[in-house]
Amino acid sequence: MVLDILKYGHPTLREKGKRIERVTPEIRQLAADMLETMHAAEGVGLAAQQVGQAIMLTVIDVGAAERPSQLFIDGKPQDLKSSMPLVLINPEILHKEGEQIGSEGCLSIPDINADIRRFERVTVHAQKLDGQEIVFECTGFLARAAQHEFDHLNGILFITRMDAATRVSFDGKLKKMERETLAALPKARKPRRSPTPHRAGLASL
Ligand code: ZN
């Protein structure tokens, strides 16, 4: 089932995800729905927060992307296309190195793209849907997607990774989006004060 993707301003996007202790049928169904939603939106990644669930679950698929990536397991290069999609539970970054700067966008913040500085290579530990643990190394666009999604799982949006001048240039657009999102929320979900946490941590990595 294709799910609604929450837009900028929704409070769930700022929530840190809870650790998943057990892979239940509900988690499996949510992962399947997230894959369907991501593909329908032509995205390369989606975090559970973006469909309203603050839990440590993300899906990634860079199989159709033109931007290059590599994936290694135990130091051996893997075929990227047949390794996709990835469903990652409780993921953590064990090691990070290098630097890349490239364009990034977000399904929850439509029509906003900017160059974002990320690590070039990351080593990821996660659980898979079958409960098995996986450790892999990735580079390039896959490493970028993984870092973007792990940020979501911690309630961090890519706009906080923009350099200050770029972030300011999107201020009006973001405020408008936030107002529209909050106006569409049921009353009980509206925060008492307008949240402005994105002002913190500008240009930090
Ligand atoms: Zn995103």
Task: Explain what you see.
The structure is a single chain. Residues 198-205 have low confidence and may be disordered. The protein has 5 helices and 9 strands. The chain has 205 residues and is of the alpha+beta class. The radius of gyration is 17 Å and the shape is globular. The chain has one domain: Peptide Deformylase, CATH 3.90.45.10. The strands form 2 sheets. Strands 1-2-5-8-9-3-4 form a 7-stranded antiparallel beta sheet. The structure holds zinc ion. Residues 106-108, 148, 152 line the site of zinc ion (ZN).
Entry summary:
The protein has helices at 25-40, 80-83, 140-153, 164-169, 171-184; strands spanning 45-47, 57-60, 69-73, 76-77, 86-97, 100-106, 109-118, 121-127, 133-139. The protein is α+β, with helices and mostly antiparallel strands and 205 residues long.
Could you outline the blueprint of secondary structure elements for this entry?
Layout: H1 25-40, E1 45-47, E2 57-60, E3 69-73, E4 76-77, H2 80-83, E5 86-97, E6 100-106, E7 109-118, E8 121-127, E9 133-139, H3 140-153, H4 164-169, H5 171-184
Bound molecules: zinc ion.
Average per-residue pLDDT, rounded, comes to: 93
* Strands side by side in the biggest sheet: 1-2-5-8-9-3-4
Number of strands: 9
The biggest sheet, with number of strands, parallel, antiparallel or mixed sense and barrel status, is: 7 strands, antiparallel
Note the main attributes of this structure.
alpha+beta, binds zinc ion, 5 helices, seven-stranded antiparallel beta sheet, 205 residues, Peptide Deformylase, 28% strand
